[in-house]
């Protein structure tokens, strides 16, 4: 198997608003990771944007701390920004 | 017609050679990349051979031209038919070929023939990507370990004589542009550009090939030869 480091790939589709995680791959460096991602995940459609990140640079929240991280907010409506009027013409909020 | 056939045969034979890497590439991602490039080449070959068949006007379609011609009727350059015993050879060949194809397609895209310029306009974007891919690997191998440097230089030296054939006749004017594309990559890869003026084999465009092409065609054509006229 490959000795190259692991990279995580994020792609923004042509009409998409945000980059979405689509998968991972092995590549010796960022340039080749980009090109591999293009072949593997985008089929070279024009106008898409690709981000590659070394997997080692990503810090993830721990599943063990799930409750402490995510639970308290859900039942407290005042924590959610739903009490503002969105001004007209403001884009993707 | 011979002109279009030459371009189409270059792409077809290059595709066949690249396809032989399937599941043999140094890493999984490279396997996909090589197959990708092979598919691009095959796509260009199909368009060009179809058009060559129409120009000929003898009712031969892309399959008839691909599967029912012997090596003496093939018009590809010798470079594409050479075997690829080493990954460095494949990359050197792809570097030389894609730089050449890019220049040829760019030239054709701007030239008069409407049909040909549509094909060329599509193919030149692919060639630019192939060139980019080959350049990256040439630099990585050339400027990599002493062993990879040796193999890359070896591949460049071995294939260089075959690049003269690409610029025979009308296309002599493209060689300086080609040299500047290729030399920039070789320099960055810390490789030495072989001297011009040595051995310069040719004849592919006239159907005079190396011994490698007929083996390649035997494998490519065996099924069609065994079941002529079959549909798939």
Instruction: Kindly state the percentage of residues in helix of chain A.
Output: 10-25%
Number of E-state strands of chain B: 0
- Oligomer kind: heterodimer
CATH architectural type of chain B: Up-down Bundle
Treating each run of at least 4 consecutive H or I residues as one helix, how many helices of chain B? 9
Whole-number mean pLDDT of chain A: 84
Chain pair sharing the greatest interface = A-B, 13 and 11 residues
Number of DSSP strands of chain A?
3
Number of domains of chain B: 1
Largest sheet of chain B: none
Shape of chain B: globular
Uncertain runs of chain B are none
Radius of gyration of chain A in whole Å, from Cα?
Answer: 18 Å
What would your notes on this structure say?
The mean pLDDT of chain A is 84. Helix content of chain A is 24%, strand content 22%. Chain A has a three-stranded antiparallel β-sheet, covered by helices on one side. Chain A has 93 residues and is α+β, with helices and mostly antiparallel strands. Chain A contains two helices and three strands, in the order E-E-H-E-H. Chain B is mainly alpha-helical and 232 residues long. Chain B has one domain: Ferritin. Helix content of chain B is 66%, strand content 0%. Chain B has helices at 2-19, 28-56, 62-67, 78-81, 87-110, 114-142, 146-159, 175-188, 212-226. In chain B, helix 5 runs antiparallel to helix 6 (114-142) and helix 5 packs across helix 7. The longest helix of chain B is centred in the first third of the chain and has 29 residues, at 28-56. Chain B is globular and about 50 Å long. The model of chain B has no long low-confidence stretch (mean pLDDT 95). The A-B interface holds A 2, 4, 25-28, 31-32, 35-36, 39-40, 44 and B 27-29, 32-33, 36, 129, 132-133, 136, 140. Chain B: InterPro entries: Aromatic_CoA_ox/epox, Ferritin-like, Ferritin-like_SF, PaaA_PaaC, PaaC. Chain B: This is Phenylacetic acid degradation protein. Chain B: One of its GO terms (biological process) is phenylacetate catabolic process.
